[in-house]
Amino acid sequence: MRRIDVLRSHLAGQRHHWLVTGAAGFIGSHLTEALLQLGQQVTGIDNFSTGHPANLAEVRRSVGAEAWSQFRFVEGDIREPKACARVAEGVQFILHQAALGSVPRSIDDPLATHSSNLTGFLNILLAARDAGVRRLVYASSSSVYGDHPALPKVEDQIGRPLSPYAVTKLADELYAATFSRCYQVPLIGLRYFNVFGPRQDPAGAYAAVIPQWLTALISNTPVFINGDGESSRDFCYVGNVVQANLLAALTDDASALGQVYNVAFGGRTTLNQLYQQLRELLADRYPHVAAHSAQYRGFRPADVRHSLADIGKARRLLGYEPAHSVSDGLKASADWYACRYSA
Q1: What are the tens digits of pLDDT across the range 11-44?
Q2: Domain count within the chain
């Protein structure tokens, strides 16, 4: 039996109190949904800067009234120490997802990125320390690998950060290691690689590529590919991220603590391949997709050319095993966006 199945069985028989920061966001809402479905008590905090009430409404419909009664939502900002202390009180596990994502956003507004991702994280660390939580699992990013050329990416080999966003995530890891040593806060960091799935916001200048392209194809508007389309990414379906968080939160292996892990599928997809897969997934429902052509433009500043994760460490120490392939995740995503964004 897979380790995640053992943990799910364990959770089904025991109720713990969890805090999910960024609970109305893309990843945070999926974590909240999974925990409530497993009979857990969940407190969520979000300031709706990038999260949406609609995400929580969808979770409520999904889990049903009984499970939803175990959820308490606080509209608050992790940049406020008192708000962090309030929601951490009585909590056993913290899954910290709240952040301002996007490399381009951080280049445009580094101060806002710093405030949310560094000051906010420090406030959560302090709240976790003072509340005596059993485990804090926090979201880091593959951006910390920076300009290191080697593939696949291995946790102990990083380069120079290429954006303010990457700096904040690297600094988060340093802060976490320091809090682990100085205050014995039990921490695990997860370096996410290009997470995608339902509820990812397709709107705005900083939207991720998959929801942006899906909605553009559905609405027959332009798809822009940065560079020549041969840049590649290790796309990871959000269900795999949920698994990694649960494994990290509940591992009883002391050697797994105080470390960071790659969370990815462990494969590469070029932007050109991604575009073709999305077209194929939507072609039967939208005849105009057959004639759709992408438009190419220049490379974005601070974008890495290729990304691929070595997930061996997460497999070995956490029992992580991606359950969702990229193709399966793209199909689930295409179905979700088609239901919600069709004219």
Answers
A1: 888 999 999 999 999 999 999 999 999 999 999 9
A2: 1
CA 269/CA 234 separation, integer angstroms = 6
Which domain covers residue 16, as residue numbers?
A: 3-193+236-266+308-323
| CB atoms closer than 10 angstroms to residue 19 | 28
For the question of residue 165 being annotated catalytic, the response is yes
Domain with 34 in it: what CATH number?
3.40.50.720
Dist. CA 150–CA 308, nearest whole Å: 9
In a domain, residue 15? The reply is yes
pTM over 0.90: yes
The active-site residue out of 138, 165, 192, 261 is: 165
Q: Indicate the pLDDT class of residue 298, thresholds 50, 70 and 90.
A: confident
Alpha-carbon span 294 to 193, nearest angstrom: 24
Q: Spell out a b/e string for 181-218, using b for 16 or more CB atoms within 10 Å of the CB, else e.
A: eeeebbbbbbbbbbbbbbbbbbeeebbbbbbbbbbbbb
